[in-house]
Design goal:
Blueprint (H helix, E strand, L loop, with lengths): L3 H12 L4 H19 L3 H17 L9 E7 L3 E6 L2 E6 L9 E10 L11 H6 L5 E12 L4 H10 L4 H12 L8 H9 L2 H15 L4 H18 L4 H11 L6 H15 L7 H13 L9 H14 L1 E3 H27 L5 H14 L3 E3 L4 H17 L2 H15 L1 H4 L3 E5 L8 E4 L5 E5 L7 H10 L4 E6 L5 H4 L2 H7 L1 E6 L5 E4 L2 E6 L14 E6 L2 E5 L5 H10 L7 E3 L11 H7 L3 E4 L11 H9 L4 E3 H4 L2 E6 L2 E6 H5 L2
Length: 638
């Protein structure tokens, strides 16, 4: 079966992206082609494997057996609860610990998908971890406190009064990465599974000095299974377990193929996880290597990170070379600190804090598009095989192009970002190195803003307009100042300006109102061959002033003010200016925006409306003289 399992694994990776009747039909046809090519009985195994995938795709997840749930995973903003064999996503619960048994009354539903052009949604992220259902809690009581070792350790850490030490220990021992120090390091090490892998390899190597390889392998399988039974079978844990199970397979490529097939059988959505992509594709490309060299890892690591998140911090390159040694050391120091109460880990903390501070500003960004990723992969395989310098030069050139893709981009576009309850608009003229932004969204949704800018390879914000000082409009101002170069910040009313030959006209710039919402900066922007209206959080009173001051104003696209609140977007305003499209930035929350009255007005006037909480990011694009409106939902649904 040499090479066959790897070929089958690669086929399955591509096949899983197909939907509907084509998915089922391919499952029947592929074994036939396999038999015609190899002319042996192996096609039976192929047919059985594909049949399992087809059946699992149409078998619903098991329902909760009762109202008792065990706390399986704790993260800063959510917890995962286990009932039977199924995991359920739940918003953060106060005062719960690992392995607590909870009696919960609530509603179970599919995790609602959100749509972003580049950011991962909550549903996408959880599916990549094998979680498909969410639990909305109505009432909750603790039946029994967790008594396992990890429950006691977690409770002990929660009692640590030193907030900085406690945060660091939580990240090392429980992979709970919070905003702040070490975030560049831990977000990568934990999401890729390298931290846990390094610790496991350390213990396995120790056992290797005491036992024969076969015994070490069996002990590793037992240890991983017991650890997963006591904690949580994550993507990384499944990968390590399968690698040990298929240890007996001599051919490296077939062993890799079997691990990939096994992981996809356990959870097809693992293919979206960095913990699946990074280690397995790293091994895949090393199959072509004539000999291993120190720099090979970075040639593979950097494009995978850029394709996955559009961002690669150079501290990852530094730490990747040392993680096999540092991670076990950090683990033991952290465990010792947690058990004794002394900060043995403090010197390591200060060292990592220094490295994070020195290197966090050195990064490359720009999501590798497929038309660059495919040639990169082909050239990389050739470079690993032949080791010719010209191939290394080509790889470097492709990475350099990805850093300047905003300058090379011929499209003029503007995007209304889905930042939940908040506003953020980004405008990029054709072949521009920077962008213009109107508002920043709330601070807790900064990742949606930074991910988009990094994915586009943007380092400079030429103009940043803050419509008014509400947190959901300027909450990310300080973070943007730290991470990007901002040339001009406009936070007071002006008569307007011209940006890259595109006019941004300030409206009612001489008026002063008695509240911050009505004092929002108002702009009519001539972009993408359209007139786009931005009104911040103005009310219908200000809209009446606009009607009096600018009776013949043309509005093609209306950014509905105040997230579709009933205090704005009056029928008189809508019917007078009659935009061709309305965009509302809103979220599922207690405000219940947009208001039904506003939706009724838009519907009665037959004005097409896009809402970010339903349609995701809204992209306005002009290319070759034509203007298009595309939503993240349109793209993700295809």
């Amino acid at each position: 079966m040499k090479h066959r399992f790897l070929l089958l694994a690669l086929f399955i990776l591509l096949w899983l992206s197909v939907k509907g009747i084509v998915f089922v039909l391919t499952a029947f046809l592929f074994p036939v082609f396999w038999y015609l090519h190899y002319r042996d009985h192996s096609f039976i195994y192929v047919a059985l494997i594909l049949a399992v995938f087809v059946l699992s795709a149409y078998i619903p997840q098991a329902e909760a057996k009762d109202d008792l749930y065990r706390v399986e995973v704790i993260r800063p903003y959510y917890v995962l609860l286990k009932n039977g064999t199924s995991l359920y996503y739940c918003d953060s619960l106060d005062m719960v610990g690992y392995d607590d048994i909870l009696r919960i009354d609530g509603e179970i539903s599919d995790i609602k998908d959100e749509y972003f052009l580049y950011s991962y949604s909550k549903a996408q992220y959880q599916r990549a971890n094998g979680v498909y259902k969410q639990l909305v809690i109505e009432s909750c009581e603790t039946v029994k406190k967790g008594s396992s070792l990890r429950a006691k350790l977690y409770a002990l850490l929660k009692q640590n009064e030193n907030e900085e030490v406690r945060s660091f220990l939580m990240q090392v021992l429980f992979q709970i990465s919070e905003e702040g120090e070490y975030q560049h390091l831990n977000s990568f090490m934990n999401s890729s599974g390298l931290a846990f892998s390094a610790l496991f390899r350390f213990f396995k190597n120790l056992a290797g000095y005491l036992f024969f390889p076969e015994v070490t392998n069996i002990l590793a399988i037992i240890s991983l299974f017991l650890y997963g039974s006591m904690t949580h079978f994550s993507c990384t844990l499944h990968r390590l377990l399968l690698e040990e199970v298929f240890f007996f397979v001599k051919e490296r490529d077939d062993r890799l193929g079997l691990v990939m097939i096994g992981m996809l059988l356990l959870c097809p959505d693992y293919r979206y996880s960095l913990a699946f992509q990074l280690p397995l594709f790293y091994r895949f490309f090393l199959l072509y290597a004539k000999e291993r060299k120190k720099g090979d890892a970075l040639w593979i690591l950097i494009p995978l990170q850029l394709f996955n998140s559009g961002y690669y911090s150079l501290i990852n390159a530094l730490y990747y070379r040392l993680y096999r040694f540092l991670e076990p050391l950090l683990f033991f120091l952290s465990l010792l600190s947690a058990l004794t109460g002394y900060s043995f880990v403090l010197p390591a903390m200060k060292l990592l804090q220094l490295c994070d501070g020195l290197f966090c500003d050195f990064y490359i960004s720009g999501k590798l598009p497929l038309f660059l990723l495919v040639p990169y992969a082909l050239i990389l395989s050739e470079y690993l095989r032949s080791r010719q310098k010209k191939h290394a030069v080509c790889l470097a050139v492709i990475l350099l192009i990805s850093q300047k893709q905003s300058l090379l981009d011929p499209m003029e576009y503007g995007v209304f970002l889905n930042v939940h309850h908040g506003d953020c608009f980004i405008y990029h003229p054709a072949h521009a190195d920077g962008v213009l932004m109107i508002d920043t969204g709330s601070h807790y949704n900064y990742r949606y803003v930074s991910t988009f800018l990094h994915a586009k390879g943007i380092h400079t914000i030429d103009y940043l307009i803050i419509s008014h000082p509400d947190e959901d409009h300027n909450g990310n101002l300080n973070s943007l100042k730290e991470d990007f170069h901002i040339k001009h910040i406009i936070d007071e009313k002006s008569e307007g300006f011209v940006y890259k030959k595109h006019a941004f006209k300030g409206l009612l710039s001489d008026r002063v109102y008695d509240n911050t919402n009505d004092n929002s900066q108002i702009y009519l922007a001539n972009i993408c061959s359209c007139y786009v209206f931005f009104g911040g959080d103005i009310s219908s009173a200000v809209e009446r002033d606009l009607l009096d001051a600018y009776p013949g104003m043309q509005i093609d696209i209306l950014k509905c003010s105040h997230h579709g609140s009933k205090t704005s977007s009056s029928f008189a305003f809508l019917s007078t200016y009659y935009p061709a499209l309305a965009v509302i930035s809103a979220a599922e929350n207690s405000y219940h925006f947009p208001n039904e009255e506003v939706i009724d007005s838009l519907t009665s006037l037959k004005i097409p409306t896009l809402i970010t909480k339903n349609d995701g990011d809204v992209l306005l694009v002009q290319l070759f003289g034509k203007t298009f409106v595309i939503t993240a939902k349109d793209i993700r649904s295809r």
